[in-house]
Every structure is written in structure tokens, then in C-alpha cells.
Amino acid sequence: MNDNTAAGDEYGKLYRSEDKIYPREVTGRFATLRRLAMFVLLGTFYIGPWIRWEGRQAVLFDLPARKFHIFGLTLWPQDFIYLALLLIVAAIGLFLLTALAGRIWCGYACPQTVWTEAFTWIESAIEGKRSKRMRLDKAAWNLEKVWRKSAKQFCWIALALFTGYTFVGYFSAIDDLTIRLVTFSAGPWEVFWVLFYGFATYGNAGFMREQVCKYMCPYARFQSSMFDHDTLIVTYDAGRGEPRGARRRGSDHKSQGQGDCIDCTMCVQVCPTGIDIRKGLQYECIACAACIDVCDSVMDKMSYPRGLIRYSTEHAMEHKKYHVFRPRTIVYSVLLATLAIALVSSLALTRPVILDVIRDRNALYRDVGRAGIQNTYTIRVVNKHNTPHDYLLGVSGIEGIRLESDTAFSVAAESVFTLPVSVTVPHQHAGGGHAIIFHLESTDGSDIRISEESRFRGPLERL
Ligand code: SF4
Ligand code: SF4
User: Whose CA is nearest to atom 2 of ligand 1?
Assistant: First the structure.
């Protein structure tokens, strides 16, 4: 045996592949809630691109046109500050939720959880319940195993591709995308992203599952820093449950010195991450509450009170007072409220038409003889409305000031119009620098009036 082989053997001992987890099916209050969340969230995602608003796709992130349409709101590149603000608000909202309710997001609403729930549901519908699935995996290949495994793969791949197609439909108008895909005329990048997101869904929800939460998700790593003694966690009541042990139903376990846990291991069997919550809070726990549901059903069968495993807090378990308002929840709430108000009010005040005036800096001014002194500008009108508008441009600020260019023009819907203009001022008023104001007024009855300040420069000797 050479050194390389020895080293390889050593690594072989150090590396241990993950055992496949076969979570047992569970029913109960929280399982119903989780399924409801799955239907609502997946339904919203799949139906989302088909919703129409004011004649177009309601939610469309049109990257080539650099415009994001969110229902009636259109965000242009200069509005991306709102998008950044929205992401910050969402992040702080998640921090607040985590400080109050622990990993509720992970257990009920995280895309990884939601799609894994859907893939697991397909798996158990085709391959059967936990014990049947385990037997099927151990069995030699036969006709039944081939058709069940093939049917599962077919459904998984179909759902994954449909997910990829829907996701791309948020970036490329879904009705056109559908036509292009069915007529095989879709662009290579569209096909690539459909396959890429399909593959990511298939890999994460079909195979990686709990390993994404355990090893890949950065949020799982740092969210414990948001926990404190009043954060809601899934807890096993060791004081009530220990010492655990098997017993006959109806026996007086207390007189035998036993706690309420009958050591049936059902809480471990239903856990999607394969942990034993009786060992205490572990970072792998995604707070899905499957162990609560199953333990409650065991407690019902034994005629013990429910809640041996329950949502609780460290302080509540120690019979201490629970505080909703703690420094961290107050800080998160204040930040969240401030940013949310800033976002809503700035969106409400956002102007649907923007007038920009850029002075030509190459020429300070031009003497045009008896007509006076001339400056040139570039006028930029951004029309964010989804209808075209007719405008009239004017200028004021100096006696005798006038525009030399054509001042009436139309700007198409959701487009940018650029117009070079010259402004002339009589010699006697043109010396030095002056503030001037450009006015833009709609002439089609849409009641748009905006103005923008600029500077007019003339010769210094006339000051
Ligand atoms: S399900 Fe309840 S009773 Fe059964 S092992 Fe878990 S904690 Fe104990
Ligand atoms: S320990 Fe319970 S709540 Fe945590 S992941 Fe496992 S089943 Fe879900």
C-alpha cells in the first residue's frame, strides 16, 4: 500500500455520506397549516405571471427594457432605490419575525421548504408511505420498482421544468414565452434559464432537501444571533417527559418514576432534518412543528395532556415572564416602521413624468449678433405613463428670454424623449450667470405641469 492510498483511506474514514431521511407522514394542526401555506405560496407563484393589470402582465421584471412592472407601478432604472429599500424592509421584517417567532419562515414559507413539501407529497403519492418507500429502495430492481421510480422522476421533472418556465415568465412576458417555447423559437438564454431553474428546483427539492438547510443556507447559520430567551422555539419539555421509557397504556407511570415521554421515537421519524428534538435546540431544526403534531397524537392515545413538545420560549420553560418588547424587537420595529413609511411616502410622491435639463458644457455661450446671447441645452422628458402625451416647453427667468427650437412635441408611452434646444437672451440682460426655469406643460388635457431649474451664462464684461 503506497502513501497515496493510505491518505485516501484516511480521508475515506473522515468522510461520512449522509443517510437518506425518510420522514414519516404526519397529520395535525401544524401539518394542515404547512400544507395550506404550500398551496397559497405555490399557487401565487404559478398564477402570478398570468395576472393582467392595465392591459399588461401585472408583475414583469423586464430586464432588456430596464423596467420593472409591479401591478400599476413601473420602476425605471432611476427608481431602483425603491427596490433596494423594499429588499431592506423585507430583510428587517424577517429579522423581526425571527426575533419574535424563531424559524417560522423556514418551517412554513421558505421556498426550499415549500418545494420540498411538494416533491415529498409526489413521492409518497407514487411510492407509498415511509415503510413502503424504505422497502422499495432496498428491494432489487423489478417491474414495480421501475414504474414507480420512473413515474416519480417524470412528475418531479415535469414540476421542476414548469417551475423554471414560470420563473422565466416573470422576466420575459409569459404569453410570448409560451408561444416561443411551444413553437421551438425561444432564444438560447430563455431555454438555458428555464432548464437552469428547473434543474435547481429538481436538485434542491428532490435530492438535497434537508441538506440545503443544514449545510448551504447562510440564514440558518446567522439567525441564532437574533434569538434570545423570549424567542419562540420548538421545545421538548424535559422536566415533564423525563425519565422517558416504554410502558403499558393506562399504567400509572408516575408511580413507577417515569415521565410522559414513552420513547416511541415518532418525533424523530417525522423530522424532515432527522434530528431528535429531545436533545435540545439544534441549528438543524427548521421549526416545522411536525414533531409537535405527532407527539400530540401520541399524548392523545396515552390520555396525557398535549404539549410535551410545543412552541415555547426558554423563559416560559423556566416559568419566567415573557416579554414581547425587548431591546432587539424594539430596534427592529422602529427600523421597519421608519423604512416602510419612507418607502410608501416616496412611492406616493414619485413623479410619473420627469424633466431633466442638461446644459451644453462645451460652449459657454454663443453671440448670435443682434438676436442676443445663446446657450444650448439638452431636454430629456421621461414619460412613465402607459399612454402618450403632448407637451409644450417654455422657459422663463430673464427678461426677453426665448426658446429658438420647436417647443411642441409628443412623448410616446413609457419612453424617454430627448430634444436639443437653444435659448436666446437679449444682450442687455445676458451678462454673467442667471438662474432660468424650463416649464413643461401637457396640451392633451392630462394636466401635467413640471419645471426644472438651470443656469444661463453670458459674457462677464456685461456685468
Ligand atoms: S413523540 Fe413524544 S412521546 Fe414519542 S418519543 Fe417523541 S417526545 Fe417522546
Ligand atoms: S425537530 Fe421538530 S420542528 Fe424541528 S425540524 Fe424536526 S420535526 Fe421540525
Answer: 295
Indicate the pLDDT class of residue 149, thresholds 50, 70 and 90: very high
Which residues, 6 or more positions from 162, have their beta carbon under 8 angstroms from its beta carbon?
Answer: 46, 198
Q: 312 is written with which cell numbers? A: 415555547
pLDDT in tens, 391-420: 999 999 999 999 987 789 999 988 889 999
Question: Which phi and psi angles does 438 have, rounded to 5°?
Answer: -95, 135
Ligand nearest to the CA of 213: 2
Residue 263 backbone class (left: φ over 0; alpha: ψ -120 to 50; beta: rest): left
Ligand closest to Cα of 284 equals 2
What are the pLDDT digits (tens) for 237-259?
999 999 999 888 888 888 889 99
The backbone torsions φ and ψ at residue 123, rounded to the nearest 5 degrees and listed phi first, read: -60, -50
Nearest ligand 1 atom, CA 291: 1
Q: How far is the CA of 310 from the centre of ligand 2 (A)?
A: 10
CB distance 85 to 79 below 8 Å: no
Q: Which grid cell is 267?
A: 418525533
Residue closest by Cα to atom 6 of ligand 1:
267
Closest-CA residue, ligand 1 atom 8, reads: 261
- Inter-residue contact 160 to 201 (CB < 8 Å): yes
Q: Is 308 in the pocket of ligand 1 (CB under 6 A)?
A: yes
Q: In the chain, pLDDT over 90 holds for what percent of residues?
A: 54
Where do we find the cell 425518510? Answer: 22
User: One-letter amino acid identity for 302?
Assistant: M
Give me ligand 1 centre to Cα 124, in Å: 23
pTM across the whole model: 0.79
